[in-house]
Amino acid sequence: MKFIRVLKNNNQISSETVKQAFYPEHISNFSIKTVFNGNTSYNIGRRKLNLFPDSFLAINQGTSYSSKVDSYIPVNNLSISFSPTFLSDFYRSHHKTQKELLDEPFFNEEISENFFLETIYPFDGDMKYNIMHLKQQLEQEAPDDLLVNEYLHHCLINYFKVYKNEVVSKSENLKFLNKSTKVEILKRLTLAKEYIISNYNKNIDLEDIAQSACLSVNHLLRTFKQAYGKSPHQYLIQVRIDRSKYLLKHSEYTINEIVEIIGFECPSSFIRLFKAMNKITPGKFRLNF
C-alpha cells in the first residue's frame, strides 16, 4: 500500500506499508523520516542507520542516501519532504526581526548547515502528536493544501524544539570555550549516538562506538558524558529499556523473547534493570497498558 501527496508548493508526503523494499540511492529535499512499526535501514555515505518507531530521522537537502525494508511483518513508513522555498521561509521567520520580515517578505534566506543537523532524534511529545494527527487526517479524509501546510509548519516548529534540546543544549554542556570546537565535537558525538541507537541489539563495544565517531575511546567517554549526561554504556542500556517498553506495549512477544530481541543475555538482569529504571516490573508494565 502506497500513498503520495504532492502539494502545490512542492512539499510532499509519502507513506508505504511493505515487508520488503529497496529504495536506490537518490537525493531529495530536507526530509523527516518516520516508521510506525518494525524498522527501516538507511545508508548515508558510510553511515548505516536503523530507524525504529521511537525515533525520527532528519535528512538534509542535497544528501544522497538509500533505504531498505526487510521484515517478516508489514512496516509502515511515512516521509515528509519540504520544498527549499518553504524551508527557507521558515528559517527566516526564526532568524530575522519583524522589521526585516516586513521589509523583505519574500527573500530566500540561505540556511545555516547547523540549523538542520542530519541525525536521529527522539520521536515523542509534540512532534509525535503532530505527525500522528497528520497521518490520521490523510488516511481518513482528504484535507486541502492549506490545512496540510499548517501541519507541516508545526512539524518544523516541533523539529526546531527537538533540535534545540538535542543539539543546542547538549552543545552548551560541552566544556570547551571555542564554539567551532563544540560544534565539531557534537557532530562526532552525534555519530556515536547514532551508532548506539542503530546497533543497540548487538554486542557492541567502546572501540566500535569510538571508531564510528572518529574519537579516541577516552575522549569519547569524557565528552559523551558531558553532552548526554550518561556514559555510552548507560545510554545503550536506556535505549534497550526504551525498546523493551515499546515491545511490551505493542507486541505479543514474551518477556524472554523481548530480552533476546533487545540484546540482553539474561532475563533476570533485564527485569532487575527495568524495575530499577521504571519502578515497576516488565510484567506489571505490560498489564498497565
Task: Describe this entry's structure for a reader.
The protein has eleven helices and eight strands. The chain is of the alpha+beta class and 289 residues long. It folds into three domains: 2-169, Jelly Rolls, CATH 2.60.120.280; 174-229; 235-288, Orthogonal Bundle (Arc Repressor Mutant, subunit A). Strands 1, 2, 3, 4, 5, 6, 7 and 8 form an eight-stranded antiparallel sheet that branches. A hairpin with a 2-residue loop joins strand 4 and strand 5 (47-51). Helix 3 runs antiparallel to helix 4 (145-173). The chain is globular and about 65 Å long. It comes from Daejeonella rubra. Residues 190-288 form the HTH araC/xylS-type domain. InterPro entries: Homeodomain-like_sf, HTH_AraC.
Indicate the topology.
Elements lengths: L1 E5 L5 E16 L3 E5 L4 E5 L2 E5 L3 E5 L4 E18 L2 H12 L2 H6 L16 E3 L2 H16 L4 H29 L5 H20 L7 H8 L3 H12 L3 H19 L4 H7 L5 H12 L3 H7 L1
Antiparallel strand pairs: 1-2, 2-7, 3-6, 3-7, 4-5, 4-7, 6-8
Helix pairs in contact: 3-4, 4-5, 5-6, 5-7, 5-8
Protein name: AraC-type DNA-binding protein
GO molecular function: DNA-binding transcription factor activity; sequence-specific DNA binding
InterPro entries: Homeodomain-like_sf (IPR009057), HTH_AraC (IPR018060)
